[in-house]
């Protein structure tokens, strides 16, 4: 029972840590990221132990990468990273579809933000 409770504490800490990092994102990216992480963590509540291990490893990498990117104070902050072809080859059709939807939504959000920040003539 102790092992399960410590695992649950690690999952919750990672989940809360990611949500906290999302506060540093632009508002539209934060909303999109918060919704996505909620869905992903909920969907993996009953996953097999091997899948949970990979899930936790990948979300921990995301946490570390995002923390590094947000800690770099730049004029124009860049977040995210390109996925290698090897990683993309391991995605299911559903995951590729989700990735494409995420790409469309973020590029639309970026375009809207750029449009909103343009000086009005």
From TrEMBL:
What GO biological process terms are annotated to this protein in UniProt?
mitochondrial respiratory chain complex II assembly; succinate metabolic process
Spell out the PANTHER family in the cross-references: DC11 ACN9 HOMOLOG (PTHR13137), SUCCINATE DEHYDROGENASE ASSEMBLY FACTOR 3, MITOCHONDRIAL (PTHR13137:SF6)
Q: In which organism is this protein found? A: Elysia chlorotica
Please classify the protein's predominant subcellular localization into one broad category: mitochondrion
Q: Which GO terms describe its cellular component?
A: mitochondrial intermembrane space; mitochondrial matrix
Q: How does it assemble?
A: Interacts with the iron-sulfur protein subunit within the SDH catalytic dimer.
The family note in this entry says: Belongs to the complex I LYR family. SDHAF3 subfamily.
| Function (record text) | Plays an essential role in the assembly of succinate dehydrogenase (SDH), an enzyme complex (also referred to as respiratory complex II) that is a component of both the tricarboxylic acid (TCA) cycle and the mitochondrial electron transport chain, and which couples the oxidation of succinate to fumarate with the reduction of ubiquinone (coenzyme Q) to ubiquinol. Promotes maturation of the iron-sulfur protein subunit of the SDH catalytic dimer, protecting it from the deleterious effects of oxidants. May act together with SDHAF1.
- InterPro entries in the record: SDHAF3/Sdh7
Annotated keywords: Chaperone, Mitochondrion, Transit peptide
The protein's name: Succinate dehydrogenase assembly factor 3
Location in the cell: Mitochondrion matrix
Q: Which domain of life is it from?
A: Eukaryota
């Amino acid at each position: 029972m102790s092992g399960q409770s410590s695992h649950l504490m690690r999952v919750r800490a990672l989940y809360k840590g990611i949500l906290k990092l999302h506060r540093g994102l632009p508002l539209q990216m934060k909303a999109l990221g918060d919704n996505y992480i909620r869905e992903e963590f909920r969907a993996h509540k009953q996953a097999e132990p091997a899948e949970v291990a990979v899930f936790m490893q990948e979300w921990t990498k995301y946490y570390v990468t995002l923390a590094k990117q947000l800690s770099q104070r730049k004029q124009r902050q860049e977040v995210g990273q390109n996925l290698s072809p090897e990683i993309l080859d391991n995605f299911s059709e559903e995951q590729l579809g989700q990735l494409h939807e995420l790409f469309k939504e973020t590029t639309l959000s970026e375009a809207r933000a750029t449009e909103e920040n343009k000086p009005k003539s």
